[in-house]
Specification:
By secondary structure, the chain is α+β, with helices and mostly antiparallel strands. The protein is built from five helices and twelve strands. It has a six-stranded antiparallel sheet, with helices on one face. The protein has a two-stranded parallel sheet with strand order 4-5.
């Protein structure tokens, strides 16, 4: 049994503002005073943590505390890359999650535009450069990047009319270049949409223009209540859990 009174101890170097999660003192999504941003994303079926080990208590933390540790101690993605694996993430079952440890992976941006993804795989922290800057949930980040190869035919430019056996075929309306873009709520489909929308967004010269544009882009990922449902059968009957987009943040 782990002694939860022991574990890593540190003094924060930087001030942090962010979104609280589960009513705990954690940052599910936050930015520090140096412009480093960390987002915690749900990672079911893949996250893997170590069992608590008394010989490593001084570098051990629960997965939900990792984002706060990054924000408290580092000012840039370069610093994160040099230090991301100097701690150990350990199992910490949470009652609010049904007594399992929070399955999470993390995206980190800094004010230079650099971005990395950190994932706890096979009880080891793995880091990836993220040239696109987008992120969703399971499966692993490298899988999502490979999956983009399935959509290399997509373009924001409308398809030109062409002759087909003497017939003039033309698109029925605007948006024909992106016909086939996946529109469902799965993480893999959202990743593809995020990659395409972010890479084709018109560059804005000021934050006052860019921030509203990013909120507009994020509207494409809102989950209206009732559109994504989990139906669970229990001894007391069937329960329906409706997913919903609880919050959206944009960091300037």
């Amino acid at each position: 049994m782990a002694d939860k009174s022991k574990g890593i101890s540190y003094t924060s170097k930087y001030g942090i503002v962010g979104a609280n999660g589960f009513g705990f003192d954690i940052h599910a999504d936050g930015v520090n005073e140096k412009g480093l941003y960390v987002g915690l994303h749900y990672f079911p079926g893949y996250a893997s943590y170590n069992e608590p080990n008394s010989s490593k208590y001084e570098v051990s933390m629960a997965p939900e505390d990792y984002g706060t540790w990054l924000l408290a101690n580092f000012a840039s993605v370069e610093e994160v890359k040099a230090n991301f694996n100097k701690v150990v993430l350990v199992e910490n079952p949470l009652e609010v999650l049904g007594n399992i440890s929070l399955p999470a992976h993390f995206i980190v941006h800094d004010k230079s535009g650099a971005c990395v993804v950190i994932e706890p795989l096979n009880k080891t922290l793995v880091i990836y450069d993220n040239p696109l800057g987008v992120f969703t949930n399971s499966p692993t980040f490298d899988w999502h990047m490979t999956n983009l190869n399935n959509y290399i035919n997509l373009s924001v430019v409308n398809v030109e009319p062409f002759d087909f056996a003497g017939l003039k075929l033309r698109a029925p309306g605007e948006g024909s270049g992106l016909r086939g873009l996946p529109g469902d709520g799965t993480p893999s489909s959202r990743f593809v949409r995020a990659a395409i929308y972010s890479q084709t967004a018109i560059h804005q010269e000021t934050a006052s223009l860019a921030v509203p544009q990013v909120f507009h882009l994020m509207n494409n990922f809102d989950i209206p209540v009732g559109s994504v449902r989990e139906v669970v059968k229990t001894e007391n009957g069937t329960k329906v859990f409706n997913e919903i987009t609880s919050w959206t943040t944009v960091v300037d």
